[in-house]
């Protein structure tokens, strides 16, 4: 079974030890976007809260970034951030070239701009391909994703094509669906779980919707604990078998939107890069109003220079200081959340640690 509701830092203990010693460590994974543009208007989109100065990322900048990431020691690049990377004319070359450098490459997408030709080019080079889908019918798909109903058929066709290509060439790539789940989407859960099985994908993951510290998106996290929602989510997980996994991110869905820690250490292990070229610790801090946490822009300065700069460590140390409180100063349950839980426990050891 795939680990879709935790972290994998236990497989990178060498880097954890370096971090414990106070050393500068390269991110294990980087989530990046090649553009801030998107052809969808999803109702739950956090991207609308991440506005910052846009600078177009051309192939020269991307190529330099990939070399820098490899040289520094980054292990994986996911095209998943604050834009739809398939809107960039460079996404195919990015995946192919990144893999040729030894980086694990992944793509998260709404899937609309993909086609069989593009899928044939990238699937060989991807570790995973994830389609973001929160509606199981043309009508609900259009409602939640802010597109015309005809987009549904195109995306479903592209998912079919991806599965066909994977099977035809026996490719190791993992193909999955992700549902960003708001409480009033409960009636989509079972139909989506059935759709994923019918399409032949490897998994469907159902996750919470993040909101910022001002509750701009208006998510009421207490509603996730509604009996009907819990029962429906469990029924969906019950549809898993040895070829198909439905996985609910229970730890976040049932958290009430609360964190148990104040310090952010996880950004040093999982870093994010905006489709504007902005390098910041995480997507929660992309917006211009968080400029005190911004490190630089790969359009202006190479990522390698930014990584080895004094500014990089200043920002990381600020997030780990008493001048920052993750409970009140950034959005809810971020990408780095599970890593942060683990790393904070390493710093603030529980009582009686020898009674394992």
Structure description:
The chain is an alpha/beta fold and 356 residues long. Helix content is 33%, strand content 13%. The protein is built from 12 helices and 10 strands. It has helices at 13-20, 59-72, 91-100, 116-122, 138-145, 150-168, 189-199, 227-237, 250-253, 303-307, 310-319, 337-347; strands at residues 29-32, 76-79, 104-109, 126-132, 174-180, 203-207, 245-248, 270-273, 278-280, 296-297. It has a 10-stranded mixed beta sheet. Helix 7 packs parallel to helix 8 (227-237). It is globular and about 50 Å long. 42% of the residues are buried. The model has no long low-confidence stretch (mean pLDDT 95).
What's the structural blueprint in terms of helices and strands?
Blueprint: H1 13-20, E1 29-32, H2 59-72, E2 76-79, H3 91-100, E3 104-109, H4 116-122, E4 126-132, H5 138-145, H6 150-168, E5 174-180, H7 189-199, E6 203-207, H8 227-237, E7 245-248, H9 250-253, E8 270-273, E9 278-280, E10 296-297, H10 303-307, H11 310-319, H12 337-347
Parallel strand pairs: 1-2, 1-8, 2-3, 3-4, 4-5, 5-6, 6-7
Antiparallel strand pairs: 8-9, 9-10
